[in-house]
Amino acid sequence: MISNVYNSYSNSNLLKYYFNNTNRSVPKSRPSFKSEAPDTDIKSIYKDSDLSHTSWFYINDLHGKMTKMERIYNMVEQFNKTPANQNDFFKNTTDDKVAKFRVSSGDISIGCNPNNNKVAYKFLEWCKFDATELGNHEMDIVEPGDLASLIENTNCKMLALNVEADEKSPLAGKFQKSIISEKNGEKVGIIGIAPSDMFLRVKMSNSLQSIKVADIDETIKLIQQEVDKLRNQGINKIALLSHSGIDNDKKIISMTDGIDIIFGGHTHNLVEGIEEGKNLFYSRTGEPVIMTQAGKNGEHVGILNVDFDKNGIIVRAQNNVISTSPYSRPLYIKDAVEKIIGKPEYVGRVGKAVAMPKHILIEDNPHGDLIVDAMRHELNTDIGILNTANIRGWFTPGAEVDSRLLGDISPFEDKMMIISLTEKEIVDTIKSGLEQSFHSENNKPGILLVSGMKYKCNRKGELLNLEFIDKNNKSHVIDVKNPKTDKTYTVAVDDFFAMGGDNYLPENLDKSKILKTFDFDKNKLACDYIKKLPQPFDVVYDGRLEIVD
């Protein structure tokens, strides 16, 4: 096992900033920076006593990945205990001079499973995160009382400056605008914002219906008001936890002043090092602002080391993005998780398995194909349909497969349904997925995975051809330009898809099309299906989805 997180720095790009100004609000000039500047340069300008040393452990978009949480717990423990001078950034600096903070930028939980969500909030508590903020997947929890209870029972503050809860909702008063955190005598302000596109990213639930979320322009005004409030309290080092996406984060930087760091999320960017124009920008008054994101699904964490001058301006910084894979899962944390979720059920073993596709929202994904096959086979329908965003993990060659792994691969525990769709409706919903995904900047919401069908499309988002593969493995070509309106198929789907989630289907599906509903999710079907497969089973491409230029 790697001895400590500081040995894992994959991109320890050190930047140092030099200022002529001493007035925070009206800088005389934009700062310049040097890369890998020798320590003598900064010491000739600043005494160590004039600098505030801070180190920030940050995460975002874990999406309920419990095995990753266990590894990250181990990393947080090492971050807490490792002497500061083992990090080159803080050499010759004693532990009592470095303020260490731990922050989360949302989407730590995912789906509506109460035990899985309890683990996510316990993880925040076990790691003693100073603050998290409200991501869209936190709102997957259907009942506002359940979400309110989770927030109440963790020591981690939930921030959402731009969210207003109905005064009669259990969520009223549960979201804070900001906090002031003090470590080793250093005080910092931490603000949090939820995504302004919340209602586009979450299926309707009682929790979602009980809140209002400000749009991005109003959110920016609220951020500046909160920054000014903190500065009036003497706080001149301020971080923003933003689940708003990288483009909105850039907009926030350009239209505000007083924010020093944005710990971002939502768009799943992996932002390494520090580079001007990439994640180093300047506020409207010319001060440097560093922006981060650590990818998705707990695959990486970040440690951002920052020195501030006495006016709260960044004078040097080092951003480190670290893979979580090499770190072990402490047995006592694994046991604590299983006390909440129960012991997993063993279902089989993987033989061969292809790598997870790089662009999961716009590529065929054999790991997801296996799940949608399970939906069709176990519910005995003509076809199965599943959106690619459902799949957040993968099968590893030679690995044992249990119910917990399947929960990692497909964390949304939406209930299963059998619906009836016409040939035209099927063509239209596949086209909707293609058009939305290939024409959006972040490829959301994702194309559709299918079972009992195969189709070809191009990267313009055009459906070129489609075939239905019957239970005798016979192919039937469907005319995608003139599909039949009187030919129907039984379709295995989840309720998110059936109820119009992400606009694949209309929101108000004709109730006559709902043939059966079930009180279980696709993971149960996957467990049952995999048990019946010859062991070990393979996860490979079979040509059901072809994408051409």
Word description of this protein:
The chain has 2 domains: 5-20 and 45-323, Metallo-dependent phosphatases (Purple Acid Phosphatase, chain A, domain 2, 4-Layer Sandwich); 344-548, Alpha-Beta Complex (5'-nucleotidase,  domain 2). It has 14 helices and 28 strands. The strands form 7 sheets. A 6-stranded mixed beta sheet has the order 2-1-16-15-3-4, covered by helices on one side. α2 (66-81) packs parallel to α3 and α10 (366-379) crosses α14. The two termini are 44 Å apart. Mean pLDDT is 91; it is low at 18-31 and 34-40.
Overall, the morphology is globular
Overall CATH class of the largest domain? Alpha Beta
Instruction: State the separation between the terminal residues, measured CA to CA.
Output: 44 Å
Structural class by sheet pairing and helices: alpha/beta
Given the structure, what is the number of helices?
14
Q: How much is the radius of gyration in Å?
A: 25 Å
Helix content: 25-40%
What would the average pLDDT be, to the nearest integer? Answer: 91
User: Are there runs of 5+ residues with pLDDT below 50, and where?
Assistant: 18-31, 34-40
Strand content: 25-35%
Number of DSSP E strands: 28
Question: CATH H-level name of the largest domain... which superfamily?
Answer: Metallo-dependent phosphatases
CATH fold-level name of the largest domain? Purple Acid Phosphatase, chain A, domain 2
Largest β-sheet summary: 6 strands, mixed
> What is the strand arrangement across the widest sheet?
2-1-16-15-3-4
CATH architecture of the largest domain: 4-Layer Sandwich
